[in-house]
Design a protein that fits this description.
six-stranded antiparallel sheet, 1 helix, 10 strands, alpha+beta, Rieske Iron-sulfur Protein, 2 domains, Rieske_Fe-S_prot_C, disulfide bond, Rieske_2Fe-2S, 166 residues, binds FE2/S2 (inorganic) cluster
Length: 166
């Protein structure tokens, strides 16, 4: 008789321990799954402004390629991307920043000092210093970033709409 009572007590303890462990595992797996399934994904872009550096030494009509880092969110991942912009001081008050890809097929172009033009090596498109197409096959002017000048610092924003042109 004593044996059965001990046995039932032990069995009851094991059943309760198994149930408690199952509940613990279910919670550990269920809560992250619930959060994943029922909370909205974050925006794909922070859309923020990035400090691209000091432009106090930037000479008039002398384009420089400035590197900068942009942070964006893709779902639950935070991605840091390195990018560049061709920055030109067109006048004392006007600074523009072009995206670094040619508007034909996206090759990296460069500033050709001797010609005073941006040249794309892939299919020989040329662009003027203000981004206009001088020689195709590029179908539109260079794309631009939104820019702000804060003192001597250049802030680069999102890319302007490709339909607006230069
Ligand atoms: S990619 Fe620049 S001209 Fe074709």
């Amino acid at each position: 008789m004593q044996y059965n009572t001990d046995n039932q007590g032990r069995r009851g303890f094991l059943v309760r321990a198994t149930q408690a462990l199952s509940a613990l595992i279910g919670g550990a797996l269920g809560i992250p799954a619930f959060v994943y399934l029922f909370t909205p994904a974050k925006s794909h872009s922070t859309g923020g402004w990035v400090d691209a550096g000091d432009i106090s030494q930037l000479k008039l009509n002398a384009p420089e390629e400035l590197p900068f880092r942009r942070v964006r969110m893709d779902g639950w991942k935070i991605i840091t991307e390195k990018s560049t912009a061709w920055v030109v001081r067109l006048s004392e008050k006007e600074v523009v920043a072009y995206t670094p890809q040619c508007t034909h097929l996206g090759c990296a172009y460069h500033w050709e000092e001797s010609k005073g033009q941006f040249l794309c090596p892939c299919h020989t498109s040329n662009f003027s210093i203000d981004g206009k197409v001088l020689n195709g096959p590029a179908p539109r002017p260079l794309d631009r970033y939104l820019v702000k000048v804060d003192g001597t610092r250049l802030l680069i924003g999102p890319e302007q709409s490709k339909t607006k042109g230069a």
